[in-house]
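Deliverable D5.2: sample structural annotation.
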Amino acid sequence: MSDEQDAAGTGPACEPEPGTAPEPEATGLAAVEPEPPSPAAELEALRQENAELRDQALRRRADFENYKRRVERDRALASQDALARALAALVPTLDNLERALGAEAPEGSLRDGLKLIHRDLLAALEGLGLHTEDPTGGVFDPERHQALTHEAVPGFAEGAVVEVFGKGYALGDRLLRPALVKVAKGEADPHQDGPEKLH
């Protein structure tokens, strides 16, 4: 090999060894590092992240408040249902006491005792929200009354409640037992022997 080839750098001594990468300077490429974000961009990114976290927190809080209200509403409904069932179970007892008091019997300690029991029981149940409905003389309401008979009665307009066989009972707006009534109908039919009974 001549000295001229060595001086020109074309000889074997200038070739890189196999398996080694050329130096960046040898290829003319320099390592590029990413530029750090500006303070304004960092501040905007933090503001956006803060807004997103705040929105998530508000949503979680709203969901929790809705959950609490739903649990309270369900608890109140369950309590109201239990009370309604208990009061409805006592309605026949009130009916029996009123029938006993309505029966002809001499005044005495036994009758006075029944009056006292009926009054105290009714007062206790009214204290729990029970109220009675006696529609005598009013207009028949199929949503609040149950007609047991229809009968033409002088002095009563058609559809009027003539007699109450059993008072209605309600707890607030919830009907526990409709009033059992006799309802007046139009003029008497000469071909009908007696009152029309509903089954």
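Annotation notes: Residues 131-199 form a domain with the Nucleotide Exchange Factor Grpe; Chain A, domain 2 fold (CATH 2.30.22.10). The longest strand covers residues 145-151.
The annotation will be released with the project's public dataset once the embargo ends.
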